[in-house]
């Protein structure tokens, strides 16, 4: 392990983005989708294709906040043998080649709870995980994972949403670290897109309450939309659209077609170009 | 509260954050947190409002038809030759099951909150029918999520819901049963936060639902208490109820939790048998985890992935259970057992032939446990079955299992 704490990897990346005067691109893929080897190849290609931070989904049978695209990706991964230890293997493999790009594990609490919170935090940290986004752990349940994660030096990134009012926002931000993830719509992933003026207002509101970077996600499907968000936020998160691109490169029986990874990377490069060109 | 120390009362839970011991809680996405806090606030205010209680009572009497009888099942008692068996006739409620008790309570709450649209999940369709019924009564648009598999095996209830004006949405994700219907209902709620009220049908989900549903269903146990006092001049000796999510059972048990002389028996669905892995017995065959907003016993693999439940009864076909049951199980205040599909089918037919009552397959699980136990007990043992629903909806399923073509 390097002497630099993992939490610093997120801070350093956002500092570097500030120095470059641009927003970041956060890409989401599901660990083990469509299979372990292809997932490893996708992960390896993301940073080179312009992803500044990587969210890696921990597959779960019942992803309640996710739309059809990510639901399907979770099931593909699980049907092909994904499990928590394999997810951490993917991170470990990635870290042998890339010491700088932050990796955030995103998912639901039960697979972590089943793994054991302390063991999970130790193993995730050792594998090179920088932060966690756990959808079904609101601040009311901070004792479960958020506080132990902060103690273990793993960032706990909270979701703020259109329903999080000013009265509630301080509680949501209190133990948040790394960055704040603004969910731009009241809805599930990969469905509706937010009006950009409302996103700008929401980011400005968050900025009044926190010094942390603000990433915006849910409903960002195209390089143009990513660029719009990149003008007003510190990072744009794209998930379902990338996962859909993976699904588009599968045969009817689910076998990855040759060229899947390259095709997904073409899309990621387009997204990155959109984000990088946004403030020019 | 430690699992090792016996509390002074079993009726004080949950704590302010909705915990029964380590179970319960509020494990939901941030988008929903403000909504469930709003439900909690509104429910607490309603509880303190005598007008709300009066409205609830009035509807239960004049619309649901309460109190329903505590019926002495003399023929079954004679046939089994042991305990004196009573049926709490929830199947005589309007819509044919206990589900309507909770729906009346929650629709009154939704109206107080100014909500304009109702969503719900359903397994067997009983909660869907009850929800569609109260939505028709109060002229509110209603969307019911139901797994594709359940739609196929509960056609009469699907038709009933549509007649009542509800939109029934088929859920094709995951295992296409009750748990997936609940996922879809939660996804709908996240996407329609301004006007929609989620009317959960069982004593599970995020706080305050497990408590609220229990409170509305406690009318069952409270009536049993009064009616048994009138009939026998004392408390019953044992109460038996089936447990899927566990709303009829918690409503039956809760008023008796602090009466140590009353044995409480919850009956889970053992499907093809616990050892086969094809069952729906979360307590007997699962372990604690977090799903659908609460920590509770769940059917899951060693990686924390939720596994499919199996039961002939769609209403019990759920891989979780209400959090208060999990706590009562750990505390050993309630004894939880399980009954297979085959045993439930036999009990179903016995009840029809001996008592002239066709019970729901869900309730048949509880009845099968009574058929096992009653012969071993003395004649002065007062045993109560919560006959939670009627079986008309199940005749196609039963006919198929008996090799009869309708």
Structural class of chain A: alpha/beta
Name the quaternary structure. Answer: heterodimer
Query: What Rg of chain B is obtained from the alpha carbons, in whole angstroms?
Result: 19 Å
Provide mean pLDDT of chain A, rounded: 95
- Give the SSE order of chain B as H and E letters: EEHHEHEHEHEHHEHEHHEHEHEEHEHHEH
Q: Greatest contact pair? A: A-B, 44 and 35 residues
Query: Termini separation of chain A (Å)?
Result: 38 Å
CATH topology of chain A, by name, is: TIM Barrel
Radius of gyration of chain A: 17 Å
- Residue-averaged pLDDT of chain B: 96
At CATH level 2, the architecture of chain A is Alpha-Beta Barrel
Helix percent band of chain B: 40-55%
State the CATH architecture of the largest domain in chain B: 3-Layer(aba) Sandwich
Tally of helical segments of chain A: 12
Assign the CATH class of the largest domain in chain B: Alpha Beta
Strand order of the largest sheet of chain A: 5-4-3-2-1-9-8-7-6
User: Main beta sheet of chain A: strand number and arrangement?
Assistant: 9 strands, parallel
Q: How many domains of chain A?
A: 1
Uncertain spans of chain B, ≥5 residues at pLDDT below 50? none
Strand order of the largest sheet of chain B: 3-4-14-9-10-13
Description:
Chain A is of the alpha/beta class and 280 residues long. Chain A is built from twelve helices and nine strands. In chain A, β6 (159-160), α8 (169-174) and β7 form a beta-alpha-beta unit. Chain A starts with 5 loop residues before the first helix and ends with a helix. The longest helix of chain A has 18 residues, at 260-277. Chain A has helices spanning 6-20, 36-48, 68-79, 84-95, 109-115, 117-127, 146-152, 169-174, 196-209, 223-232, 240-248, 260-277, and strands at residues 24-30, 53-57, 103-107, 131-134, 155-156, 159-160, 180-183, 214-217, 235-238. Chain B is α/β, with parallel strands linked by helices and 406 residues long. Chain B has two domains: 28-60 and 98-213, Rossmann fold, CATH 3.40.50.1100; 67-96 and 217-401, Rossmann fold, CATH 3.40.50. In chain B, α5 links the parallel β5 and β6 (142-147). In chain B, α4 crosses α5 (126-137), α4 (99-112) crosses α9 (209-217) and α9 crosses α11 (247-253). The longest helix of chain B is centred in the first third of the chain and has 15 residues, at 33-47. The N and C termini of chain B lie far apart (53 Å). The model of chain B has no long low-confidence stretch (mean pLDDT 96). Chains A and B meet through α3, α5 and β6 of A and β2, α1, α8 and β11 of B.
């Amino acid at each position: 392990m390097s002497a630099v704490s993992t939490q610093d990897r997120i801070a350093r990346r956002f500092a570097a983005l500030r120095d470059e005067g641009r927003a970041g691109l956060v890409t989401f893929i599901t660990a083990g989708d469509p299979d372990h080897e292809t997932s490893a190849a996708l992960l390896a290609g993301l940073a080179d294709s312009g992803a500044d931070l990587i969210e890696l989904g921990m597959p779960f049978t019942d992803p309640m906040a996710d739309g059809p695209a990510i639901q399907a990706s979770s099931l593909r991964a699980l049907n092909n043998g994904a499990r928590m230890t394999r997810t951490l293997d993917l991170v470990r493999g990635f870290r042998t080649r890339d010491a700088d790009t932050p990796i955030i594990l995103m998912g639901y609490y039960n697979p972590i709870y089943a793994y054991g919170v302390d063991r999970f935090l130790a193993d995730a940290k050792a594998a090179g995980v920088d932060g966690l986004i756990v959808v079904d752990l609101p601040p009311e349940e901070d004792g479960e994972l958020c506080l132990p994660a902060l103690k273990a030096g793993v960032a706990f990134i909270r979701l703020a949403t259109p329903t999080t009012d000013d009265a509630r926002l301080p509680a949501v931000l209190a133990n948040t670290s790394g960055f704040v993830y603004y969910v731009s719509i009241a809805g599930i992933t990969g469905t509706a897109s937010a009006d950009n003026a409302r996103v700008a207002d929401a980011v400005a509101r968050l900025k009044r309450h926190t010094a942390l970077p603000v990433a915006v996600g849910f409903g960002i499907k195209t390089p143009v939309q990513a660029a719009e968000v990149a003008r007003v936020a510190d990072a744009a998160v794209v998930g379902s659209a990338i996962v859909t691109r993976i699904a588009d490169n599968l045969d009817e029986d689910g076998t990855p077609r040759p060229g899947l990874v390259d095709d997904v990377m073409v899309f990621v490069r387009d997204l990155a170009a959109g984000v990088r060109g946004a403030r020019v | 509260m430690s699992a090792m120390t016996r509390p002074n009362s079993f009726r004080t839970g949950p704590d302010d954050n909705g915990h029964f011991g380590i179970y319960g809680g509020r494990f939901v996405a941030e988008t929903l947190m403000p909504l469930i806090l709003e439900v909690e606030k509104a429910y607490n205010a309603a509880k303190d409002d005598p007008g709300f209680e009066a409205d609830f009572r009035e509807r239960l009497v004049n619309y649901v038809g309460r109190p329903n009888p505590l019926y002495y099942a003399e023929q079954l008692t004679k046939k089994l030759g042991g305990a004196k068996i009573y049926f709490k006739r929830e199947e005589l409620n309007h819509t044919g099951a206990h589900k309507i008790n909770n729906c009346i309570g929650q629709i009154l709450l939704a109206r107080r909150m100014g909500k304009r649209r109702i969503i719900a999940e359903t397994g067997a369709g009983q909660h869907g029918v009850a929800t569609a019924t109260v939505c028709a009564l109060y002229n509110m648009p209603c969307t019911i999520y139901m797994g594709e598999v359940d739609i196929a095996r509960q056609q009469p209830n699907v038709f009933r819901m549509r007649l009542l004006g509800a939109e029934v949405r088929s859920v094709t994700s995951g295992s296409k049963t009750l748990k997936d219907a609940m996922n879809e209902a939660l996804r709908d709620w996240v996407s329609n936060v301004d006007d929609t009220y989620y009317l959960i049908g069982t004593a599970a989900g995020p706080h305050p639902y497990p408590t609220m549903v229990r409170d509305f269903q406690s009318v069952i146990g409270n009536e049993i208490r009064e009616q048994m006092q009138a009939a026998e001049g004392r408390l019953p000796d044992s109460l038996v109820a089936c447990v899927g999510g566990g709303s009829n059972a918690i409503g039956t048990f809760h008023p008796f939790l602090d009466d140590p002389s009353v044995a409480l028996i919850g009956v889970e669905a053992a499907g093809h048998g616990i050892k086969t892995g094809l069952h729906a017995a979360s307590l007997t065959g699962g372990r604690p985890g977090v799903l659908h907003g609460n920590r509770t016993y769940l059917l899951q693999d060693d990686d924390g992935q939720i596994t499919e439940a199996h039961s002939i009864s769609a209403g019990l076909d759920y891989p979780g259970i209400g959090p208060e049951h999990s706590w009562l199980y750990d505390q050993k205040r309630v004894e939880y057992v399980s009954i297979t599909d085959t045993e439930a089918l036999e009990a179903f037919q016995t009840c029809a032939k001996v008592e002239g009552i066709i019970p729901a397959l869900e309730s048949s699980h509880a009845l099968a446990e009574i058929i096992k136990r009653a012969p071993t007990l003395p004649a002065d043992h007062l045993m109560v079955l919560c006959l939670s629903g009627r079986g008309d909806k199940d005749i196609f399923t039963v006919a198929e299992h008996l090799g009869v073509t309708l």
